[in-house]
Amino acid sequence: MIRRLIPMLVLAASTLAFAAESVVIDTAHQSEKEKATRDELQRVISKYHLAAWSFTHRVLIDENSIPHSHPVLTIHIRHLGQEDALLSTYVHEQLHWFFVAHSADTDAAIADLKNLYPEVPVGYPEGANDTNSTYLHLLVCYEEGQFDSKLMGSDRAKAMMEFWSKDHYRWVYRTVHNDADKIENVIQAHKLVPPEVR
């Protein structure tokens, strides 16, 4: 009896592991560019073994939307054919889910950041949509740089962060670069390091 149960238990465990590591990627309009971006993102997730690390397992590719994390992680088609930018965007939006899951610690970290940076920019291209979001993005973009460095190597990650600092959240990415030690201290003080980066 036990011998018959073992293969079934192994199969059940492997099925659960696969399900836990799957990321479902849908397209909003089923356009060719959305499908191509979906396929490329699936390759990136597989190549870098991101499914098990991901904090949400549902993704939408929408050519008419800018990337955002909630309610469904959404990525646009802008970075089709640009693996590093697509990877970094995916990591960035996933990190928002991590910080939401740790909202009390995130709020405490933001309070510390407000003491460090009493005035922050709001709005494109320097800041985020509002003051709180700009502070939150100091945390998200710092961790994004850490993950990018681990996944793609320090040279490519540095190039990616430099690109973002001239693209959007410019002040945020510059500050993350210039004040990395200060921001890391805030993150460490509130234990906001995702386990995979430690």
UniProtKB/TrEMBL annotation:
Residues 1-19 form the signal peptide. It comes from the Bacteria. Keywords: Signal. This is Uncharacterized protein. It comes from Koribacter versatilis (strain Ellin345).
